[in-house]
Amino acid sequence: MFSDYIKKDSNLIEIEIRCVKATRNGRESYGDSAIGYVQLKRTHGQCTIIAACCPEQSVRSKSYRVQVEIDLTKSEIKSAACHDCIASAGGCKHALAVLGWLHRESEKKSVTEVKAYWQKSKLSRVGNTIKFVEAKSLCSCLTNTLFGANKLRDTKAMNRGRKLEPLVLREVHIKTKMDFKRCGLLLSTDHPVFGASSDGISSTHVLEIKCPLTAKTKLNYINAKGEILEKVKSQIQLQMAFSGRRMGILCVADLDFEKNKNVEIVPLSYDEEHVKCLIEKGLHFGLNLFGLF
């Protein structure tokens, strides 16, 4: 935009100021020191920039006010004028200094473009630290740490879920007359980076059991109308996709299940378009955040 504006502006194409003076006035050593405060306003595809440019002859005098108008839709500089300089009618150096400063700022990378430090390689540390040690005996603490054998203490809600899950499964069997068996991790040959695990599986259905501890946590699974929330729906849809089943069941245990044995059963059909959308979003997320796939 900078060079295009200089070529078209009638005040900046005279022979005596063309190219050489324009380049000199827009140089980094002058513009970065001369530019003071900068204000910016965007309205309906137009951007107005007002900058305070310090006079080169008297730095204690009032700064010159330079105004730049930019058409954002066309990426084009419409005008650049210095309102306080005597030479502004012929295209003064202050307007060129501001334009040069704007050009340099536009070429800088934004904060979001800088790669996160935790993603950067640590190869620079090679040779500065010990790479390995020789152990005469294997410590159980070390092996447990390496293989992820860390203890995870159950919360009150997790403890209730582990305790009630087989009891709920038995009640569902009585009500639906279907035989469910436990299954492990479900994987897909087409998308091996994804996985799903249901609480039960039959020849035609997958089963997901939720045992909320309070009425508030129950709303995390189904709303007041008895509809499955999007997060849980996506969980069951992936279970159906990876298991080859076309029907799913969400079972929500009653808050007083220990006494009344009530289970709310909500059926769900397989939605292929929904699953494709989930997988696409998951791949996009992993690619952008971790650089996978």
Tell me what the structure shows:
This protein is an alpha+beta fold and 293 residues long. The protein folds into 2 domains: 1-113 and 127-147, no CATH class; 156-290, Lambda Exonuclease, Chain A (Alpha-Beta Complex). The protein is 35% helix and 20% strand. The protein is built from 10 helices and 10 strands. The strands form 3 sheets. It has a 4-stranded antiparallel beta sheet. Strand 3 (64-71) and strand 4 (76-82) form a beta hairpin. The radius of gyration is 33 Å and the shape is elongated. It starts with a helix and ends with a helix. 21% of the residues are buried. The mean pLDDT is 81.
Q: What is the radius of gyration?
A: 33 Å
CATH class of the largest domain: Alpha Beta
Terminal Cα span: 38 Å
Please give the CATH architecture of the largest domain. Answer: Alpha-Beta Complex
**Oligomeric state of shown chains:** single chain
Q: What would you call the shape?
A: elongated
* Biggest sheet details: 4 strands, antiparallel
Low-confidence stretches: none
- Tell me the structural class: alpha+beta
Q: How many DSSP-defined strands?
A: 10
Compressed to H and E, one letter per element, the order equals HHHEEEEHHHEEEEHHEHEH
Average pLDDT works out at 81
CATH topology of the largest domain: Lambda Exonuclease, Chain A
| Number of H- or I-type helical stretches | 10
Tally of discrete structural domains: 2
Name the helicity range.
25-40%
What fraction strand?
15-25%
